[in-house]
UniProtKB/TrEMBL annotation:
The lineage of its organism: Bacteria, Pseudomonadati, Pseudomonadota, Alphaproteobacteria, Rhodobacterales. Allows the formation of correctly charged Gln-tRNA(Gln) through the transamidation of misacylated Glu-tRNA(Gln) in organisms which lack glutaminyl-tRNA synthetase. The reaction takes place in the presence of glutamine and ATP through an activated gamma-phospho-Glu-tRNA(Gln). GO terms for molecular function: ATP binding; glutaminyl-tRNA synthase (glutamine-hydrolyzing) activity; transferase activity. It comes from Sulfitobacter alexandrii. GO terms for cellular component: glutamyl-tRNA(Gln) amidotransferase complex. Its EC number is 6.3.5.7. This is Glutamyl-tRNA(Gln) amidotransferase subunit A. Belongs to the amidase family. GatA subfamily. It catalyses: L-glutamyl-tRNA(Gln) + L-glutamine + ATP + H2O = L-glutaminyl-tRNA(Gln) + L-glutamate + ADP + phosphate + H(+). Transmembrane segments: none annotated.
Length: 456
């Protein structure tokens, strides 16, 4: 813990940690020492980790990367962080992220962007660690903490993991409680670990997840011993390769990463099967209707009364001006864009044309996966991202849709509620990490982690 706190102090340029909690860390570390000495040490006892700013942590600023939550000190602890602390984990601080988890580069954060510790060969220019869990990815990659929590609504664990050479798993929807996690798109949001290895991910996921009566969508299922399941034996497993993920204009390096991964799994005894997920091309548009729709509803609570920031009012301003000014000042441009898209697609005249249509498409995407699993496919191998980490400003300055295209390989998994893991398996020509994604059957994270272990 002391070494991590020191490393964090020296790594201000990465802008990964946005709230530091050294006192809490040392208190938790002392308590962990006592448990270890008493012979009562659960899996994560004494391990220093970072918590994404989207998780409510009792008495510790929890701002979701937004100005509107400035000064918000939750009265409660999220179930996931509580589970980690109960298992002896030590909180070093809160981690940078895109505002309300909307973004793929950590550049929409009120704290400014986190920076990827990796560089392109000798080129010194700063790269994005990805997003929205960019601070988590940067902190783990730079050894500022042993692991971190992330959340993934459309790829926010897997894409930053791929951009930083770390491992990130988004479990099945309902595996981790969403209680106390600031909501973005409630039917898509899931928490998960971001770690240095698949084994660490297995240990941390087992600690984070489990049934929680406080979240009605949390699954009442036993939590398997994910670590014990890590045999890495994939002999006879059927790995699906979906042809629709072979996008036009896919960089050669990504093609090669994918074919190398296929070869590696075949050599390890898996059966490689070509599959089709025909509705893949509609996933991104459906996601960018459903996610903003849910976000516009979830973000309605930030009205200047209940949480954080409230605008300074003029004489004669009424409650409407208070809402308007507070939300105009408190939300950044991307969040405002999503709220506008969301309220538009939910409005009386357009509800059927956009929102309901997107929900139907979502069902078709889910069925695509169900069909291939019914045919005996165990997991599906795809690239995690369409490129390696890009430069800061490179995408944010372009049109927002260019940024949305980053999620092309990851959003299907959230729409279908499936578990997905990003594993670093290669490098591009300039030495930047690249990751592959494995998609599993619902609730079969144990199997998914074991297959990812074979790929690592
Ligand atoms: N990049 C996607 C978005 O901006 C996904 C974000 C996420 O998974 N939280 O919506």
């Amino acid at each position: 813990t002391e070494a991590c706190l020191k490393a964090i102090e020296g790594a201000g340029a990465l802008n990964a940690f946005v709230h530091h909690t050294p006192d809490i860390a040392m208190t938790q570390a002392d308590a962990a020492d006592k448990r270890i000495k008493a012979g009562d040490a659960p899996a994560m006892c004494g391990l220093p980790i970072g918590i994404k700013d989207l998780f409510c942590t009792k008495g510790v600023p929890s701002q979701a990367g937004s100005r509107i939550l400035q000064g918000f000190l939750p009265e409660y602890e999220s179930t996931v962080s509580q589970n980690l602390f109960d298992a002896g984990a030590v909180m070093l601080g809160k981690l940078n992220m895109d505002e309300f988890a909307m973004g793929s580069s950590n550049e929409t954060s009120v704290y400014g962007n986190a920076v990827n510790p990796w560089r392109r060969g000798n080129d010194d220019s700063a790269l994005t660690p990805g997003g929205s869990s960019g601070g988590s990815a940067a902190a783990v990659a730079a050894d500022l903490c042993l692991a971190a929590t992330g959340t993934d609504t459309g790829g926010s664990i897997r894409q930053p993991a791929a951009f930083t050479g770390t491992v990130g798993i988004k479990p099945t929807y309902g595996r981790c409680s969403r209680w106390g996690i600031v909501a973005f798109a409630s039917s898509l949001d899931q928490a998960g670990p971001m770690t240095k290895s698949v084994r660490d991910a297995a240990i941390m996921l087992g600690t984070m997840c489990g049934h929680d009566p406080k979240d009605s969508t949390s699954a009442d299922l036993p939590v398997p011993d994910f670590e014990a399941a890590l045999t890495g034996d994939i002999r006879g497993k059927k790995i699906g390769i979906p042809k629709e993920y072979r996008m036009d204009g896919m960089p050669e390096e990504i093609e090669k990463l994918w074919s190398d991964g296929i070869a590696m799994m075949r050599d390890a005894g898996a059966e490689i099967v070509d599959i089709s997920l025909p509705h893949t091309k509609y996933a991104l548009p459906a996601y960018y209707v459903i996610a903003p729709a849910e976000a516009s509803s979830n973000l309605a609570r930030y009205d200047g009364v209940r949480y954080g920031h409230r605008a300074r009012l003029e004489q004669g301003d009424g409650i409407t001006q208070m809402y308007e000014k507070t939300r105009a000042e408190g939300f950044g441009a991307e969040v405002q864009r999503r709220v506008m898209i969301g309220t538009y697609v939910l409005s009386a005249g357009f509800y059927d044309a956009y929102y309901n249509r997107a929900r139907k498409v979502r069902t078709l995407i889910k069925r695509d996966f169900e069909n291939v699993f019914a045919e005996g496919i165990d997991s599906i191998l795809t690239p995690a991202t369409p490129s390696a980490a890009f430069g800061l400003g490179e995408m944010a300055d372009a049109d927002p849709v260019a940024m949305y295209l980053n999620d092309v390989f990851t959003v299907t998994v959230n729409l279908a509620g499936l578990p997905g893991i990003a594993v670093p398996t290669g490098q591009d020509s300039r030495g930047l990490p690249l990751g592959l994604q494995l998609i599993g059957r619902p609730w079969e994270e144990a199997d998914l982690l074991s297959s990812a272990y074979a790929l690592e």
